[in-house]
Amino acid sequence: MTSPSLRWGRAAIAAVALGLPAAFLTPTGVSFADAAAPASQEDGQQDGRKLELGAPDLPETRTVTTLAPGLTRTSITRGAPDASLFWTAEVAIPSTSADPDAPASALSDEATAQAVARKLRAAGVQVRVEHVQSPQLADAGGDLGYRVRAGAFQSRADGTATISQTRAAGYNASAVYTGWDGDAGTTGTTRGPWKLEVLTLDPKLFRGALTSGFGPDLQDRETTSQLATAEDALAAVNGGYFVLDPKAGAPGDPAGTAVVDGKLLSEPVGDRPSLVINGKKNESSIKRLTWTGRISSPGHGTSVALDGLNRVPGLIRNCGGTGDLPTNLPRHDATCTDPDETVAFSGEFGPATPSGPGLEVLLDQHGTVTAINAARGTAVPSGGRTLQATGADAPKLKDVATLGKHLNVESGLTNEAGKEEKTGGDTSVVNGGPMLVSGGAENITARRDGMVHSGDSNSFYYGWVHKRNPRTIAGVDARGRTLLATADGRQTTSLGLSIKEAADVARSLGMVDAINLDGGGSTTMVADGQVVNSPSDAAGQRPVGDALLVLPRRRD
Questions:
Q1: Which residues of 153-187 are buried (b: 16+ CB within 10 A; e: fewer)?
Q2: N or C: which end of the chain has fewer CB within 10 A?
Q3: Minimal CA–CA distance to 256: which of 472, 484, 430?
Q4: pTM metric for this prediction
């Protein structure tokens, strides 16, 4: 199969040290006369600005490749190995909660941290107590607490003896690299290194299509490269959050808003931000969306509210629904529960709907009730849908469903202006969060979007927001171009980004609106059929729920 970039014609790769002009060569036999010119230095380097990342004097090198007219890939290397960074053992501090099952935490108050340190020193472990201050965000950050660490090692393996000694004293510990810390006061002095990849799509020049895809069905996972190959994509990055653990739902199912080819397939998490793509114009925007859904029967006096779309009833990944426990607010990487739910399924979900007790109503392509089953789990009728209800919702659904009669199933998105968010056939929506940049200004809404967990001594925030991790970022610049960026992390050769640094990078790249997408082991970029970043999972690429795809032509 001919590579997508060769079909379009390809500019030569230009290794560009910041501040030097980018030279592009036209390959023999390839003419750009009827297409856009190769990317200029401004196009490829996001207006020539260095990244606001680490110490300001760091060396930064960029390599720019034109994948198609109006589509460039920029590879960025910033900084160099820093001899001041090292491996250390981080102690898990037992909870002081009365709950015997409360998990240990990386952080605690000072008195608890000092008490743990004294016990470890008495056992011969040389430890230190460190005060953790996090950069202030729009609604979170500041004083996180205290951590206990031991030793300074050149490699992870060198810390094995200290970790064993710590465990023998009754405390768990793990090896961490200090380059992954996102502590306030050090983020502006770190020397690196960092490795990033950036796709820039100019809607005025690009003639293909920016869209999203999830593979054969929602409930299974595929790697980003598999999703890209299946659609012959020029480039791709991983997309939104999804269910990973079967105990949290159907693995692969979106954990937030998902619209593909104009069809709403998954409901929002609260009002978390999403990337909204107008595929017809190849334009993107960041919007906070909510939704409503309802089932009714013509002539029937009552209706039933929908709780969700294409997910296991009772399990709400990332929370943010209604009537859920322990919260109706977004709570990232947590699974809320609700025993009384009504969920609608379409054929995109998979070969069969989730099985279990409850009620399931089958509708044909006209919305006519063809079956009412006393248990859940069946194939979705071709072109139709099913409705599942559990607990107290089951008799409510049964009351409005009559064999041979029509049911109206309505669901739709609402934007921040309180207006219906219309989704045409070329619309894609990919969920994310937190917000990073709004209107050209940093606006990191970690608490609003569920990345602050109450009652856990700031441990989730510390690991997810504060520390450096692999990140995937999507945004729009002032010229209307869509930018998709990945930053490798959890490696000594690329430190990753804290959420604050992700926002700084987004602004440095010229994004005026930006959102954080799924990251960590999911962070992957594919260009010209190859994975071009370094995914952090030991097994390589992580299978994901969906991906953002840049196609050489529009879908039929």
A1: beeeeebeebbebbeebebebebbbbbbbbbbeeb
A2: C
A3: 430
A4: 0.91
Identify the CA nearest to 308 among candidates 336, 343, 334: 343
Pairwise CA distance, residues 306 & 338, whole Å: 13
DSSP secondary structure letters along 11-71: PPPEEEETTSPP---PPTT---TTSPPPPPHHHHTTTTPPP--SSTT--EEEEEEEEETTE
Question: CA-to-CA distance for 185 and 466, rounded, in angstroms?
Answer: 13
How many CA atoms are closer than 13 Å to the CA of 214, on its beta-carbon side? 29
**Residue 37: pLDDT above 60?**
no
Q: How far is CA 454 from the centre of its chain?
A: 22
| Residues forming beta bridges with residue 210, ordered by sequence position | 550
DSSP string covering 372-385: EEEEE--PPPTT-E
Burial tier of 296 (Cβ tally within 10 Å: 0-12, 13-18, 19+): middle
Measured distance CA(274)–CA(261) in Å, rounded? 16
Is the bond preceding residue 193 a cis peptide, omega within 30 degrees? yes
* Sheet of 511-516, strands arranged across: 14-17, 60-68, 71-78, 194-201, 482-487, 471-477, 511-516, 435-438, 441-442
**Positions of E strands within 453-546:** 471-477, 482-487, 511-516, 525-527, 530-531
Question: For the chain, first and last CA: distance in Å?
Answer: 20
Residue 230: enclosing H or E segment and its boundaries? helix 224-230
C-alpha distances out from residue 329 to 326, 421, 451, 454, Å = 9, 22, 11, 12
79 — alpha (psi -120 to 50), left (phi > 0) or beta? left
The structure tokens listed for 385 are 């849908």
Gap between the Cα atoms of 363 and 400, Å rounded = 13
Query: Residue 504 belongs to what H/E stretch?
Result: helix 499-508
Average pLDDT estimate for 116-136: 97
Amino acid found at 419: K
What is the model's pLDDT at position 456?
Answer: 87
Q: Cα(486)–Cα(541) distance, rounded to whole angstroms?
A: 14
